[in-house]
Specification:
Oligomer: single chain
Radius of gyration: 32 Å
Strand content: 5-15%
Strand order of the largest sheet: 1-2-3-5-4
Distance between the termini: 101 Å
Length: 181
């Protein structure tokens, strides 16, 4: 039994030594050798790639497309004829004595780089957001998403999401939009 006791610690010591020898030095984070799995840094004595003769010579870097060439360019939708613009709606609110503080044009948020909800125009104030959609179907779809926090007339949607506008004040904004025609 004493032979087994002596063999076991020796076997553990050998396995531990082999395991540590296999580890080697780990490269530092950010070391380029991490990419190819080698434990040593890759030599960087390669010459830079030759200039592309088709590259523009205007001093600007060539633009890398963010989408495939077959994807058509995004075009912002336009409001339907006869639909009041967001600015006209906000001006009507102002004329009715309603608050239009901190007015911001956020139409850019209608497209794919913003919320991407497909509106044609978006003006926001502290009390209400005015969305103008290209048609009533798009406006109705968005109303279904926002529910009780929004009001729609035609292709124009008033959103109260994220505002502190009370129910009585909301009704006044809604009434102005209804009368706007």
């Amino acid at each position: 039994m004493t032979k087994r006791v002596r063999v076991l610690p020796a076997a553990v010591a050998i396995l531990l030594a082999l395991g540590l020898a296999a580890c080697g030095d780990d490269p530092e984070p950010g070391d380029p050798s991490w990419a190819n799995g080698s434990p040593k840094a890759v030599a960087t004595s390669e010459a830079p790639p030759p200039e592309d003769p088709a590259a523009p010579t205007n001093g600007k870097a060539p633009r890398t497309p963010s989408e495939s060439p077959s994807t058509p360019a995004f075009r912002m939708p336009t409001k339907a004829a006869g639909t009041p613009g967001a600015r006209k709606v906000v001006d009507a609110f102002k004329a009715a004595g309603l608050k239009v503080t901190n007015l911001r044009n956020r139409t850019v948020d209608c497209g794919p780089d913003g919320a991407g909800i497909g509106c044609a125009e978006l003006l926001t104030t502290d009390a209400v957001k005015v969305y103008v959609f290209p048609n009533e179907a798009n406006a109705t779809n968005q109303m279904d998403v926002w529910g009780a926090d929004a009001f729609r007339k035609g292709a124009v949607v008033l959103s109260y999401l994220g505002t502190k506008t009370g129910a009585a004040e909301r009704k006044r904004y809604n009434d102005v939009l209804t009368k706007l025609g």
